[in-house]
Design brief:
Layout: H1 8-11, E1 27-32, E2 38-40, H2 43-59, H3 66-73, H4 82-93, H5 106-121, H6 129-139
Length: about 140
């Protein structure tokens, strides 16, 4: 797959499709693309930012379910099919949409991150296990 046919999240090394709002480590110069999505200098920094953002949905905002986290992370007001996103992540985690989850658990955070990367980019196998694990460890 050529760079031009990769999903935006992969082209930008921002597989969570984060937008500006925090001063993330590893931002490129310029830090955004033409659609106001962040651009990172490496896949590691983009995955780390996505993992940290997801963890912070619980740590900083008190959100403890897939439904609560995804509703904030990917709101319908940003042209997301939030209900489908919630269902996809919950299915990948093997939990109900309203089940309590612990985003400070490395295993849970990594599974959640993989589900988000898959949903945002069409599939989640762009990165190997070590890349995901290092990003999650850096986020914790």
């Amino acid at each position: 797959m050529s760079a031009l046919t990769l999903p935006r999240g992969l082209r930008n090394k921002n597989p969570g499709n984060l937008r500006p709002g925090s001063q993330w480590q590893g931002l490129a110069s310029p830090p955004t693309d033409g659609q106001n999505y962040l651009v990172f200098v490496s896949d590691h920094y983009g995955l780390r930012a996505a993992a940290l953002n997801l963890k912070n949905q619980q740590v900083k905002h008190g959100l403890r379910t897939v439904r609560a986290i995804i509703t904030k992370y990917a709101p319908a007001s940003d042209n997301n099919n939030t209900a489908a996103y919630i269902a996809a992540v919950a299915k990948r985690l093997g939990v109900g949409a309203d089940a309590q989850i612990d985003m400070t658990s490395p295993a849970t955070l990594e599974r959640f991150l993989r589900a988000v990367v898959s949903h945002e980019n069409g599939r989640g196998d762009y990165y190997d296990d070590g890349t995901y694990s290092r990003a999650v460890q850096a986020a914790l």
